[in-house]
Amino acid sequence: MANRADLTVDTYQAVVSTFGEFLTVAVHTILYERDVYPRTSFLSARKYNCSVRQNRHPKVCKWIQDAVAAVEVEMLKGTVSAISIVLFSPASTPLERFVFSTTSFPRIPAAETHTPYSQPIPLIDLTSQFRAVFARLSTLSSTLSPLPPNSTFTIAIELRDEDTADPPIGHPQPWVAAEPRMQKRRGEGKQEGREKDFSGGGVKMIPVRTVGMGNFVMEMWVEEGKNKLSNGLGTTDSERD
Q1: Which residue in 50, 94, 93, 102 sits closest to 75, CA to CA?
Q2: Under a CB-based contact definition with an 8 Å cutoff, are residues 11 and 105 in contact?
Q3: Which H or E run contains 187?
Q4: pTM for this predicted structure
Q5: Strands annotated E in the chain
Q6: How far apart (Å, rounded) are the C-alpha atoms in residues 93 and 113?
């Protein structure tokens, strides 16, 4: 068996698979930290040499697994600019959005996704950065105010601003087009698009972490929507101070 210190991420396929594995753990962590499901429904586990949480309900695990697999399919096409975990109120109003920007991921032709990189990424270096992400996520509950009971979530992708980035909808249909009020129009600037993500109003953005190692460069942040802020459900007083 290879020494873990010798393992590398050496192809774009490996980059996407490594990201998908990380995203799966991140979704479970966010659901736990934001109390979308009762904390008693989560198991304690270890990943990336740190303590993480995993929901124990089979249907929740299967939904997350299928959603992440669908994300990986689109990322291999090179058309995805960001993946979001969106948290909704019981009335389906978007309140928070955890964004994983993959805009800086390389653009690789489909025929070359298994082509080895000239400079592979040491997996141990990525692992240490992933640990830092989860350490930061574990502190956000003291920064973000609680969500209302019975909040829900979904996973969304944003496509690159290119005419060739066709929406991944059709049959079978793993993705459904977002409501117009939550879509960014092609050609809009980054900031303008984000300001319209939550019912046509501004958002508060909280940086989480940047992961940067070779061809694996990802930014992560949290957005609080207009409806959450206007209803007094925004960041805590300690964060505002």
Answers
A1: 102
A2: no
A3: none
A4: 0.83
A5: 8-9, 42-47, 50-55, 80-88, 94-101, 121-122, 152-159, 204-213, 216-224
A6: 38
- Torsion-angle region of residue 63: left (phi > 0), alpha (psi -120 to 50) or beta? alpha
- Whether 191 shows a pLDDT value over 80: the answer reads no
The tokens 């659901």 sit on which residue?
A: 31
User: What local confidence, expressed as pLDDT, does residue 174 receive?
Assistant: 57
Residue pair 137/29 in contact by the 8 Å Cβ criterion:
yes
Give the model confidence (pLDDT) of 198-239 as tens digits.
443 457 889 999 999 888 999 999 998 887 766 655 555 444
Q: How far is CA 209 from the centre of its chain?
A: 12
Angle at CA of residue 182, ends 181 and 185, nearest 5°: 85
Q: How confident is the model at residue 85 (pLDDT cuts 50, 70, 90)?
A: very high
Q: Is residue 179 within 8 Å of residue 196, measured between CB atoms?
A: no
Q: List CB contacts of 60: < 8 A, sequence separation 6 or more.
A: 31, 37
- Give the up-direction half-sphere exposure of residue 7: CA atoms within 13 A in the CB hemisphere: 12
Collapse the DSSP code of 211 into the 3-class scheme (helix H, G, I; strand E, B; otherwise coil) and give the result.
Answer: strand
Question: Which has more pLDDT, 163 or 127?
Answer: 127
Instruction: Say how far apart CA 233 and CA 171 lie, in whole Å.
Output: 39
Q: Is the pLDDT of residue 128 over 50?
A: yes
Q: Decide: residue 137, CB within 10 A, 0-12 exposed, 13-18 middle, 19+ buried.
A: buried
Q: Give the whole-angstrom CA distance, residue 34 versus residue 28.
A: 10
Per-residue tokens: 80: 């995805």
